[in-house]
């Protein structure tokens, strides 16, 4: 027991829990009824009864057939730090009835999660409805106080990492995906959480500086339309000199160099008429600031008549001084058409002026992108290398919530079931184990739940997998590989080996690998095949025995 | 100037900014490009140029014609505390190019918002598209660093308070509205923000204890299904005694008293067969904990056959001892039907057993409620007194984001316009004032923007209000009352009277009053009439002059 205690302490003190603690996540981040129930349990002297709760969701989001599980590390950090301050206890006292006994608040004062056990599927795993993501065991009052924070921490995390994975799926592996959602996110932490969990789901970088600092996520960003329109004319550029990259000399009039290039380009382009001079001034000014990574937003005035020629003139001038420009961003209009036109233009410059690599300048597109617009762009054909995605990604606009629930499945070694007229809402009782069974081709075939004490499925041995509620749906499976899904992340009083909490990059890699491992028909956008989730024959019998026992017998009147 | 500085300091130190600071809201809660632009402005020695930005949205959410403006106080608190720490400056340095000059980071080190001015519409005001919610003036680099945090803080706040107001509108004034969304919210702060801004929008209470503590919002909560199913039988109740409310004596066997009442009720009910005994045990246990405010969730097994009779038996037994029960919560099934049945049952008990007030017990309903289900319940007829609303409310499921933008409208006293092929995206240039003009019946008639230096509209004097972009849409108005919308919340270097930041309750009252003041046809759910937003004749002319000036002339090819 001491060893386990030490284990817990290690998790809280020696940094084996990575990353910062969200200061908002305290035991008061809770529904009031968790405290009223805690009091009622305590008053009935029932608070120490050992309960088992399953945390799971009922339906995959976004019309898909898979979900990426995220948020675990924050739950474990929460449990490691679970302790009510005097101030918080006072507030709970004010919020409950004045008749509540003082001794309850002494109990709250001493409450921690050292006798709670948490078993979970590793973060970043592809998961499915009904299979417990977490199994939490411990004194019923303590475990109920974990419900709201755990569900809150997992719901949005899993939803947004799934959304990110779906965007990655449609964009394809070769594209760079940038999360640009902070401004439209649901509050400051909605933005920070989105940045973190989009990274897990397969995004490459974020614009969110706070998330970059907190989690080490790569950052990206250039300039906005306001920067462009803050310039009026080239006269605003007072210092026109720029040093060559190798430091060997200085170009005294970089502006003239740009203008010379612009004339050549105009001839090539065959379009006469001036480009927007305030835009040109802004680009030159931005190039002075970032000569080594010149990226420009080219749609403030007119992409093909102004933004692209202006950008190319600056990029070519930078090239003369040994710098290599980065590329452009398109933020409006027909992104497919404009990206192809821009690419064609870059290639013609590469060819005409003999500038190697100019044709491969990076084209980034943004502007209300989502799964559907990415899909449409793919079908139309485009030349975009990187997508900046905001609103639809971070707010999970297509479906703004996941229905994660936390259900009592056993108390005092008595299995409990929650009935409902809606079968999909009936809970699966008992303290359970779950396994993922893999087939010959290496794909996961089915997840199966069994009672805690049943022997595990064995490689090469036939096992009957039953739909938990539909009698006729069942299949024999001979697994080629068996993976137990729940692992111990918080041992309570047990002297158990703890599963490590990996750094964010590893979670992201796990997620990407997991997604690649899935059979493609489960992952497709249109009419995906549901992945099978089952129970053992024994558990099936028991569920239905309990169901009949608990359900009232109707009367036809 | 000193006086103004003091004003700022007062705002930061003497508590005139109410409530706590969100620790996530630091200057790094920003898009990287705000820092790259700051560097580029600085490098071009343009960073101190005086710029004016408007913060506004383009379209009302949820298919409606109004929006509740929220989030202002958090913006003012952000600006009051705006200061980069050494640690943050180091991180910005790492995130920008290594070629960035050191002196820039000295500039960041000294940067605060003492020379920024913020004019805003008071929080809790009903607002409309295109009208600036905030006008922010100051050195261009500093103001750009406010864009992302301001937009983040206002977007979700305004969206969710509007959503709450819409729910209130359909529920009606007499109902109690409870926000129960923490578990499904977009992260911890998504939940806390939702609780705060739903309260502003007209909700009465929240289940979120953290929000209760932070903002003084009333808290509500009873127990969950897990509490009910954690009980197996009446044998679990060991101490069966309950003291009378007046303390005069003790009922030694409260359980028997309940059982006696249950038998009487069963006879009245005409339904034979036992109610669920584990549910009864849970209710009795909960009553022991909260005899003075007994509220029970009655749908764990069967509402009419078990939950209601069990609840009534406990409530009647409590009544014998001088306690008054609170009511029930329904969390599944046909809420209209069940609430009517429950009410009928309560009334028959009041009549049959002569228990005054029993028929008026509070019926609370929850379970995936939203505007549509509330509307449907109203049409069907119901007996619900209080609604607990979660997912759809707090995640703004029907529309998960508002499109607040922040646009440059003037720099160095030069008006700027942002063009777009989509007219709705063209910005309205110039440093402006805005007014709300009221008609004879006291309703707001139209909002009008004018240039900064134009004389304000006068009561009783005819003024031409023009649609900003459609030439033919214009109307003369003779206002009976004129209200200037923008007020000074942060004075910069000016010695201006500061608008107070009212406490949350006042903001909520303002919001409720504002909503009641609107003409009903703007507020209705189906096909509401758009509220008119206009510009003065002079501003109209100027917008179109600038537009023609900036827009490229097309070539038909």
TrEMBL record, chains A, B:
Obligatory cofactor(s): Mn(2+); Mg(2+)
PTM summary: Transiently phosphorylated on a His residue during the reaction cycle. Phosphorylation strongly increases the affinity for substrates and increases the rate of nicotinate D-ribonucleotide production. Dephosphorylation regenerates the low-affinity form of the enzyme, leading to product release.
All copies of domain Nicotinate/nicotinamide phosphoribosyltransferase, residue ranges: 327-425
N-terminal signal peptide: none
Catalytic reactions on record: 5-phospho-alpha-D-ribose 1-diphosphate + nicotinate + ATP + H2O = nicotinate beta-D-ribonucleotide + ADP + phosphate + diphosphate
Compositionally biased spans, kind Polar residues: 1-16
Recorded metabolic or biological pathway in which this protein acts: Cofactor biosynthesis; NAD(+) biosynthesis; nicotinate D-ribonucleotide from nicotinate: step 1/1
Region (Disordered): 1-22
MF GO annotations: glycosyltransferase activity; metal ion binding; nicotinate phosphoribosyltransferase activity
Entry similarity comment: Belongs to the NAPRTase family.
PANTHER family hit by this protein: NICOTINATE PHOSPHORIBOSYLTRANSFERASE
Function: Catalyzes the first step in the biosynthesis of NAD from nicotinic acid, the ATP-dependent synthesis of beta-nicotinate D-ribonucleotide from nicotinate and 5-phospho-D-ribose 1-phosphate. Helps prevent cellular oxidative stress via its role in NAD biosynthesis.
NCBIfam families membership: NAPRTase_put
UniProt protein name: Nicotinate phosphoribosyltransferase
């Amino acid at each position: 027991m001491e060893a386990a205690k030490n284990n817990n302490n290690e998790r809280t003190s020696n940094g084996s829990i990575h990353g910062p603690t969200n200061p908002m996540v305290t035991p008061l981040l809770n529904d009031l009824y968790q405290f009223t129930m805690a009091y009622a349990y305590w008053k009935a002297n029932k608070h120490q009864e050992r309960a088992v709760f399953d945390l799971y969701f009922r339906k995959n989001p976004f019309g898909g057939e898979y979900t990426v599980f995220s948020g675990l590390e924050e739950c474990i950090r929460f449990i490691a730090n679970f302790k009510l301050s005097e101030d918080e206890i006072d507030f709970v006292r004010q919020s409950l009835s004045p008749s509540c006994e003082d001794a309850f608040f002494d109990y709250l004062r001493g409450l921690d999660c050292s006798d709670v056990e948490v078993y979970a599927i590793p973060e970043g795993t592809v998961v499915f409805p009904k299979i417990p993501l977490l199994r939490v065991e411990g004194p019923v009052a303590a475990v109920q106080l974990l419900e709201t924070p755990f569900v809150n921490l997992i719901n949005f995390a899993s939803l947004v990492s799934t959304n990110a994975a779906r965007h990655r799926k449609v964009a394809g592996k070769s594209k760079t995906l940038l999360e640009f959602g902070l401004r439209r996110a649901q509050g400051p932490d909605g933005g920070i959480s989105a940045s973190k969990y989009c990274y897990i789901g397969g995004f490459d970088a974020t614009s969110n500086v706070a998330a970059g600092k907190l989690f080490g996520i790569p950052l990206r960003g250039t300039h906005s339309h306001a920067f462009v329109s803050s310039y009026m004319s080239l006269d605003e550029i007072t210092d026109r000199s720029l040093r060559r990259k190798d430091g060997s000399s200085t170009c005294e009039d970089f502006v003239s160099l740009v203008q010379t290039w612009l004339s050549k380009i105009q001839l090539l382009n065959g379009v006469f008429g001036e480009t927007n001079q305030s835009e040109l001034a802004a680009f030159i000014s931005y190039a002075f600031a970032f000569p080594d990574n010149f990226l420009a937003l080219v749609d403030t005035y007119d992409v093909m008549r102004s933004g692209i020629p202006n950008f190319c003139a600056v990029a070519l001038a930078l090239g003369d001084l040994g710098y290599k420009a980065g590329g452009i961003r398109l933020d409006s209009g027909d992104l497919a058409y404009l990206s192809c036109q821009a690419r064609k233009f870059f290639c013609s410059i590469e060819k005409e002026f003999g500038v190697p690599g100019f044709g491969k300048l990076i084209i980034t597109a943004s502007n209300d992108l989502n799964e559907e617009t990415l899909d449409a762009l793919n079908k139309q054909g485009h030349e975009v290398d990187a997508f900046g995605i905001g609103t639809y990604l971070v707010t999970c606009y297509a479906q703004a919530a996941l229905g994660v629930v936390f259900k009592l499945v056993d108390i005092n070694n008595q299995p409990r079931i929650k009935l409902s007229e809606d079968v999909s809402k009936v809970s699966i009782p008992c303290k359970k184990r779950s396994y993922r069974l893999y087939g010959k081709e290496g794909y996961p075939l089915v997840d199966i739940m069994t009672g805690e004490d049943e022997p595990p499925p064995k490689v090469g041995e036939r096992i009957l997998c039953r739909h938990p509620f539909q009698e006729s749906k069942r299949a024999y499976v001979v697994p080629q590989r068996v993976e137990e899904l729940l692992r111990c992340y918080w041992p309570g009083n047990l002297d158990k080996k703890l599963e490590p909490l990996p750094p964010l990059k590893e979670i992201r890699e796990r997620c990407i690998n997991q997604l690649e491992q899935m059979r493609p028909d489960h992952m497709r956008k249109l009419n995906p095949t549901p992945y099978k989730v089952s129970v053992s024959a024994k558990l099936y019998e028991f569920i239905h025995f309990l169901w009949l026992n608990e359900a009232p017998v109707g009367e036809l009147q």
